[in-house]
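agent> fetching stored inputs for the iron/sulfur cluster docking request
agent> found them:
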Amino acid sequence: MIDGPLLIPVLGDQLTPDIAALRDADKADSIVLMMEVADETTYVRHHKAKIAFLLSAMRHHAEALRALGWTVDYVRLDDPANRGSFTAEVARAIERHRPHAIHVTEAGEWRVRAMLEAWEECFAIPVTIHEDDRFLCSHAEFDTWAAARRQLRMEYFYRDMRRKTGLLLTEEGAPEGGQWNYDAENRKPPPARDLLMPRPIRFRPDAVTQAVLDMVAVRFGDHIGRLDHFHFAVTRDEAIRQQKRFLDEGLPRFGDYQDAMLTDEPFLWHSILSPYLNAGLLDPLELCREVEARYRAGKVPLNAAEGFIRQIIGWREYVRGIYWLEGPDYAKRNALRATRNLPGFYWTGETDMHCLSQAIGQTIDHGYAHHIQRLMITGNFALLAGVDPHQVHIWYLEVYADAYEWVELPNTLGMSQFADGGLLASKPYASGGAYINRMSDYCGACRYDVKRRVGEDACPFNALYWDFLARNAGMLARNPRLAMPYRNWDRMTQEDRAATRDQAARFLDTLD
Ligand code: FAD
Ligand code: DLZ
Ligand code: SF4
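agent> prediction call returned; pasting tokens
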């Protein structure tokens, strides 16, 4: 075994040519191992388009690595010898190649981290796990930042990341424009439908992608989602083309309409870059530097550039830090003790609530919904209805093409479901229909009346919102950011409060 090559497993979300484990390795003396395995395709029932995207991107990446001079041993899902898990496939690769050591880049979730950490003992071969330095903030740096604080607010973390990268800073080190955050300018209601609205590039499947699509259609036919809308980039070059499309056409108005929602318009001015960032096809810092350059060249306003950069070096890095800081048991938290089953319409989009049927329908079609749809439509409804946050977490992990636990879990369990009791969000992202009406055109096309709280046609979000506050008063009433809504609830007459809670109870009964 001593004389064998170095074995370098590259996991499905490590599709970066100079990923840490490859960077200093000798191409002549290394075998790169890439594995399509049943366990990863089914540990949750991923959306068909998510599986197709990742497997096609993996197959293209293997070719790109070969073109760079690497020897790649690629195991396909339909290989009859495939043993179905990372560990079993590494074992089989060890039989084939007799490596002297294994180098691997750390995994993106606790489940896979545990596998990698067991390999050294399991195979009796030295295993080096390299830190994934595609992120700006290392685990140690985040831990130090968190240890010095009572409250882990994203805004302060974000300012540190601005200082660290120098992004949007003046020569004196002050924030560009005098403010760190221009979010107040980024909550404009939706514009009138605009025929010149940017559209993501629809990449035509090549033969590699088509073979994957055919396999996924057969093998994962009972998973959620459609494949006939498949449009994702599957190579770095394609992802760069979508990045350029966004920078040219989406970014200038990204800030203004970041929170807006329009019927049958899934993408608006969003970038649709998260699947590529998370799988490693795009580099987050490179993207942010491009955004800054557009601002400095006078091509995009500051509120757009700052708002976008904040999502990447702020939110994206921050939720990753929280995920690893909080440990594997974070997924079990349920601060509001919510127990309802996720309603069946989350898998079909079949509901009279137009906002939900839109957000879920496009999720089924594309494996994509933008942030406010995830937070204020599907997330908000589950929160108000008291759905078990673990079921909500699994749904989000399944249905979005960009979903990996390190980023999905804190967003779902913490930000959206308040199941960590306020570690991540200072108050629950809960709202009635008025917010949805302000930020979308959904309510005009809905069978429910967004202005009504009780009665046959009343928008369900309204009674559910008050019922949520009343039900969780023990946990939430002392939150200063909820003082106003609790005062308004207290000001309602006894009859109004009873009618509201009765309306909510009757509606919730229809979900079971
Ligand atoms: P844009 O609106 O164009 O934003 C630009 C980029 O900023 C995104 O590509 C993403 O990389 C980053 N970003 C924006 N918001 C966040 C955030 N809150 N956390 C981390 N990164 C962010 N994002 C994922 O990448 N994977 C997930 O599994 C995921 N699950 C989510 C679940 C819930 C309940 C919520 C509320 C949000 C979730 N997000 C997740 C964050 C966000 O919704 C998506 O990153 C975004 O919608 C992706 O679309 P986009 O690329 O068009 O983003
Ligand atoms: C999400 C996913 C899927 C669907 N399939 C594979 C696969 O067959 N092989 C692989 O290497 N990775 C896959 N992935 C991504 C992994 O689940 C991801 O690398 C881990 O979640 C990282 O911890
Ligand atoms: Fe959604 Fe209520 Fe508006 Fe209908 S009326 S779209 S249920 S918020």
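agent> quick read of the result: The longest strand covers residues 30-35.
agent> awaiting further instructions
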